Amino acid sequence: MSDEAPAATYVDTSALAKWYIDEPRSEDFERWIRDARQPTISSLTVTEMRCLIGRRCRTGTLEQAQASEVFARFMADVERRFFAMTRIDDSTVRAATHLIDELAARPLRTLDALHLSTARALATPELATADAVMADAAADLGMKVVRFD
Predict the structure, then answer these.
(1) Residue 106 backbone class (left: φ over 0; alpha: ψ -120 to 50; beta: rest)
(2) For the chain, how many structural domains are there in total?
(3) For the whole model, what pTM was predicted?
(4) Is residue 65 part of a domain?
(5) DSSP three-state, residue 129
């Protein structure tokens, strides 16, 4: 993990996509993020956002030109540091492995476990997500969850 101050809110990619792509609850997310204290993402989010945009392009919900523009806007926000950014390191990956056991009742996917272990390592009190499994798992870990699903 990086040596930055604890984050106020960790933002999962499923929620963050609503800032860039018009979909259900996008307006709610837009209102929320404008007032959010120190929205934080991880280095994983960049790759995951690129994958999400590519998937939307393949399924026809985004045209290629739109996909390129969406990713460019996201990267511009990353570069101007609209989001606090933290790196995922080996200890985060190991913690994600343990989270899968700790939250065995939840069907966590790999990337969900990595996001949750990142948020936990940062001592993030709040997590924003549009993913029901992620929301329930974060609540199990004692985080306040802002849901956009």
Answers:
(1) beta
(2) 1
(3) 0.90
(4) yes
(5) strand
